[in-house]
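Data deposition worksheet. Section B asks for the primary sequence of the deposited chain exactly as it was used as input, without tags or linkers unless they were present during the calculation. Section C holds the resulting structure in token form. Section D is free text for depositor observations; keep each observation to a single sentence. Incomplete worksheets are returned to the depositor.
Section A, Depositor: J.P.
Section B:
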Amino acid sequence: MFVRRHAVAALVVVALLTSGCGSPASPPTLAPTTAAPSPTDSAAAAYAAAEATYRAYVDALNAVDLDDPSTFEAALALTREEAKASAAASFENMRSQGWTVEGASRIASVSPNEVDEAQTHAILSVCLDVSQVNVVDEKGASVVGDRPDIQGLRVSVSRFGERWLITKFESDPGRTSC
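Section C:
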């Protein structure tokens, strides 16, 4: 059962993993694959690919319907490793509890944080606006609790072959620019 004292950690997961999954206007489509930059491309190209992947992920999340597990696939297809395991577990946990997500999250800002020398791994600093997102239980009561409307996040994105995939989400509550 969801424990409110874990609300901060759960809110990051809820905001990232279930934004706007009430009733999608149309069936979700798989997000486009982001091509990896060639070895001669700059760090800017790596950041651009990582950002495009994250934006596609948020779009996929906003199309998730917790009552329809097939809608999870577009978001999960953009993740790997820790991020994929966490997202899949969160989707299933919320679905099994009968929760519904109302509203949609919006990316307020994305900025480069780090890129490795090989330009195959980037960390993005993200400000995610969840002010329009509410998660409710079967009785219609909010399970969100107190949270900031804009959440600071660090998103790790890595290149796997020709694709960029999200490998980790971390809360970044000390981020002052959000």
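Section D:
Residues 4-21+59-171 form a domain with the Nuclear Transport Factor 2; Chain: A, fold (CATH 3.10.450).
Residues 1-40 have pLDDT under 50 and may be disordered.
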